[in-house]
Amino acid sequence: MSDIRIILVEPSHPGNIGAAARAMMNMGLEQLLLVRPKQFPHPEATARASGAESVLASATVVGSLAEATHGCGFIAATTARERDQNFRVLDVRAAAARIVEESRRATAAVLFGAERTGLPNEELQSSHVLIRIPASAVYPSLNLGMAVQLVAYELFRAAGGDVTTQLPQTSSSVPLATPEEMERLYTHLAQVMHEVDFRDRTQSGTHLMDRIRRLLQRAELDQNEVNILRGLLTAVQQRRHPAGSQQRNA
């Protein structure tokens, strides 16, 4: 499963990095990316990898989540707590089926947050779905290494076709828009909203763009669809500005 990235965001314990690498090796996953790890490389990571040193050796350390997801299409993020209802949440088995399906047309990614805090909402903005791992209500907390193992197992099963909750085939030949392409769309949309004075008129007046982002992330736009929307936005701008005065968008 070379087209699926496992991304650990700010892991604080090197042993968990090693455990994640071992889980990946067990289940045929190769791409491990670490965003601002507290300690890596580290002897404990190597010890906990227990034979999966090749995954650690090829792990990539980056300074931001944007770097880690660069070039990806479908992105899923794990969560252990309740989130805003505007996020789409899938059971781990259904999510794994979807991730494997999407990885056949562009690199897919699975995000895991820090051991104590998980992923903050701002780091979920590029995600299309959240993954929920069912656990006992008495003690639902999972160790990072355990969470990676469970997700990796479901990905392995999905890749082998042994999944009872397989989602309908929805992939097309056109890749999903990358996080960078989506950010350019959001920037363009915000610019046009400002030009036409379309503002958040609710009492707080601060959540409109976040809601729009989540709506479009749930829509899982492909590259052609992003180009259509940006073309529409450009047409709106051209109708509002005299010929030759339109600033070019990135």
Description:
Helix 1 (14-26) links the parallel strand 1 (4-9) and strand 2. Strands 3-2-1-6-4-7-5 form a 7-stranded parallel sheet. Helix 5 (92-103) packs across helix 6 (144-159) and helix 7 packs parallel to helix 9. The chain contains 9 helices and 7 strands, in the order βαβααβαββαββαααα. It folds into 2 domains: 4-159, SPOUT methyltransferase, trefoil knot domain (Alpha/beta knot), CATH 3.40.1280.10; 179-240, Helicase, Ruva Protein, domain 3 (Orthogonal Bundle), CATH 1.10.8.590. By secondary structure, it is α/β, with parallel strands linked by helices. It is elongated and about 65 Å long.
Averaged pLDDT: 89
**Beta-strand content bin:** 5-15%
The major beta sheet can be summarized as: 7 strands, parallel
Q: Provide the helix percentage.
A: 40-55%
Give the end-to-end Cα distance, rounded to a whole number of Å. 34 Å
Q: How many distinct folded domains?
A: 2
User: What is the count of DSSP helices, taking H or I runs of 4+ residues?
Assistant: 9
Question: Structural class of the secondary elements?
Answer: alpha/beta
- Give a count of the beta strands, DSSP E runs of length 2 or more: 7
Shape: elongated
* C-alpha-based Rg, rounded: 20 Å
What is the topology, as strand order, of the major beta sheet? 3-2-1-6-4-7-5
The H-and-E topology, N to C, reads as: EHEHHEHEEHEEHHHH
Instruction: Let me know the CATH homologous superfamily of the largest domain.
Output: SPOUT methyltransferase, trefoil knot domain
CATH architecture of the largest domain: 3-Layer(aba) Sandwich
Under CATH, the topology of the largest domain can be stated as: Alpha/beta knot
CATH class of the largest domain: Alpha Beta
Residue runs with pLDDT of under 50 for 5 or more positions: 161-168
